[in-house]
From TrEMBL, chains A, B:
Keywords carried by this UniProt record: Pyridoxal phosphate
Alphabetical list of PROSITE patterns matching this protein: AA_TRANSFER_CLASS_3 (PS00600)
Keyword Ribonucleoprotein: no
Pfam families xref list: Aminotran_3
Xref: CDD domains: OAT_like
InterPro entries from the UniProt entry: Aminotrans_3, Aminotrans_3_PPA_site, PyrdxlP-dep_Trfase, PyrdxlP-dep_Trfase_major, PyrdxlP-dep_Trfase_small
Name of the molecule in the record: 4-aminobutyrate aminotransferase
Length: 446, 446
């Protein structure tokens, strides 16, 4: 979820400056405004009209090449031939629902459960991360007998009514559920507790106590371990451990939303939560799982899931169909055979080093942090006050766009560049990205 | 949604008779039981292990051919080459989200909005019918300022928390939302009001009045116009009209859930609601839209949608991506160019005639009704009492399975065969289906 205010700003800017757009672009934006729901928002004041993708690159209708530093859906690379081939082949054979027997769902489940902690031994498939989180919250309620869900301050977990009600990132227009409680984001750039783990655990306990006082029984804590919408907050590894102990001590479950950090993205581990040495009760996934084919999943401990499945039916028509499973299997195979996890770790470390050089050079780069190829690049007015500089971040993404570098912003202040390229990202791309940032910052933050 | 009790029965039977299964099948069912969530249920005491599909036919691992009389997902036929080609081509070009410009979403929206009433002029895309209905209910709440939703007695509208709470078909394990009210199904085989339309309108009004008494403001009426889960209740055409007038008079909206009747299925019209001469405020779709690719949509009147979009962000990562839109466009093109709507009308009428011959022949066939290739075939103990005969229906679908005919049951009593083949269904297939039914009924209902 890109910070709502940023998108709104961009759209209103575009509306005011529509005349400046090239006629081909204007034609498309006008048509969108006319026939799509008003919820549709475009990136950039001068939107990008894409026609082609390959690996970490995208091309627009004019033939201009872009470096994609944003999309984790095309997780192993845009139009990866292994996924195209797997989907095309399976579509020619059979695509139907899971009330008939088929090997693909079983083969994939065995492959993916081999990557999770042993306690996580059951799978259910759906089509989107929202659907996975919606079901996960319902399971948390069944298992705990409670309704209270804790999320972080700027968390985003989905588009359904239930998940929207646990997504403060959607802003004030979308009310949080009365049973949702919010803890501060683990922003250890600004907050400097002596023990980050204990501090975060204490914040969780405070919200559980508040629930008790309001006769809300605690059901669980839902978080993506990289805290993407909160501004990309991966460190220090392990700080979640104490919080998860508090969650369990209070009878709740931990739902690890791996839509963002999962599938080798964070480099050190296949799953984001593993960087913290914790075992979730439920893992949810989505975006990167099928490299663009809509497939998502919920993996859970048997006893946790049984509390729901024993009495509530759940059937997702498209979920786990042979084509979705073929796509997911192809993605997993490429990640494993090409060691994209190791690649993400190495490339991420190289990129981080280069970005930290920029931090040394420009006072407005307040912090650079990341895990593998998931990096937050935080813009501030000055390193002393650490005051978020959203205007600069917005200008910066527009300047990058003009240099063919696609990314966007995150965080409660909309001032953190979210750098999250397809895992096909290579060392040579670092030059393009860092060179582009350097040129833009020279002008914007002299 | 196949009636839950039927599925449960089948699964417990299978568990008890697991030793009778062929070893290859047993291996697959055992693995499912071990690693998938317990919610997963199989059709048939002797489950079918499918490996191939083409048009209206499916093949199992033994090479046995089946006639598919159940799946509306493979709406224009299993593995339709036009959809395979469109998806393969687009996957090789580009697949990304809607925050960049792309023609596919705009071209498809223009094509599909040309099939809806002129008042319906906006589109939003997601991946499943559940997601479409979840959003539709949220829009109904925004527009009306209320929370009360009316559905029919055995309605099924989705798997999310919000839509499950409006899906009595899920059974007693899944509580309805406190703001959901239920009207009787328009079962005019059993109920014989002098004016069906007025009767149904009155039932709606009664529930709105009940809401008022309980301080619940009415938001809308959500129904699929073929009342699939209620047992396939298409007639008389036009009976919904008075009810929709009541809905509007009371400030609510009508959400036409077209996951079941939409996309030319009912023969007379492209959309199911059109058989009733009504204009919905929102149309939701799903299953048949992409012939198996997970794509769904919400089409709405501008002013209704704006009440939501003005203040609540909605972004569905996979929704409306170029590949989904290519699949949907291919499906629509085939329906239109091959006149599958006319085909469905003609084939449906032929099939209905033949099924009525069976009704004449067997006293346990209580009623046969349908619209296009969506037919309910109702089993009773005798035509006088009209007492539902669920046991017979269950035996019948098992006997049909043994003759290579795949279908399932619907309705509150689980006694209605839901006959809903891919639109590729041909006259020759009628012989297979009706012959199979005849043979089975000779034994089961002599």
């Amino acid at each position: 979820m890109t910070t709502r205010s940023t998108i709104m700003d961009t759209n209103s800017f575009r509306a005011e400056h529509a005349d400046a757009l090239r006629p081909e672009i204007r034609q498309l934006t006008d048509k969108r405004d006319r026939i799509l729901g008003e919820s549709y928002r475009l990136f950039y004041r001068n939107p990008v009209h894409l026609v082609k993708g390959k690996g970490q690159y995208l091309w627009d209708a004019e033939g201009r090449k872009y470096l994609d530093v944003y999309n984790n859906v095309a997780s192993i690379g845009h139009c990866h031939p292994a996924v195209v081939e797997a989907v095309s082949q399976q579509m020619q054979q059979l695509n139907t629902h899971t009330r008939y027997l088929h090997e693909n769902i079983l083969n994939y489940t065995e492959s993916i459960l081999a990557t999770t902690p042993a306690e996580i031994d059951r799978a259910i498939y759906m089509c989107t991360g929202s659907e996975a989180n919606d079901l996960a919250i319902r399971v948390a309620k069944s298992f705990s007998g409670g309704t209270g869900i804790i999320v972080t301050q700027e968390a985003y977990h989905g588009t359904s009514e239930l998940t929207s009600g646990a997504s403060p990132a959607l802003g004030s227009g979308q009310a949080l559920a009365p049973t949702t409680r919010v803890v501060p984001a683990p922003d250890f750039y600004r907050l400097t507790p002596s023990d980050p783990g204990q501090w975060f655990a204490h914040e969780i306990q405070k919200q559980i106590d508040d629930m008790k006082q309001n006769d809300i029984k605690f059901a669980g804590f839902l978080a993506d371990s990289i805290f993407s919408s909160d501004g990309v907050l991966p460190n220090p590894p392990g700080f979640l451990k104490a919080a998860i102990e508090v969650v369990h001590k209070n009878g709740g479950i931990f739902i690890a939303d791996e839509v963002q950090p999962g599938f080798a993205r964070t480099g050190d581990t296949f799953w984001g939560f593993a960087r913290h040495g914790v075992v979730p009760d439920i893992i949810t996934t989505g975006k990167p799982m099928g490299n663009g084919i809509p497939v998502s999943a919920l993996f859970a401990k048997s006893d946790v899931l049984a509390s729901f499945s024993d009495h509530i039916p759940y059937f997702n028509t498209f979920g786990g169909n042979p084509v979705s499973m073929a796509a997911a299997q192809a993605v997993l195979k490429v990640i494993q055979e090409e060691n994209l996890q190791g690649h993400s770790r190495v490339m991420g470390a190289l990129l981080l080093t280069e970005l930290r050089r920029l931090q040394q050079k420009y006072r407005c780069v307040g912090d650079v942090r990341g895990a593998g190829l998931f990096i937050g690049f935080e813009l501030v007015t000055d390193p002393e006050s650490k005051q978020p500089n959203k205007a600069l971040a917005l200008d910066l993404i527009e300047r990058l766009r003009d240099q063919g570098i696609l990314t966007s912003v995150a965080g409660p202040y909309g001032n953190v560049l979210k750098l999250r390229p397809p895992l096909a990202f290579q060392a040579a791309d670092i030059d393009w990205l860092v060179g582009g940032l350097d040129r833009a910052l020279q002008q914007l933050c002299p």
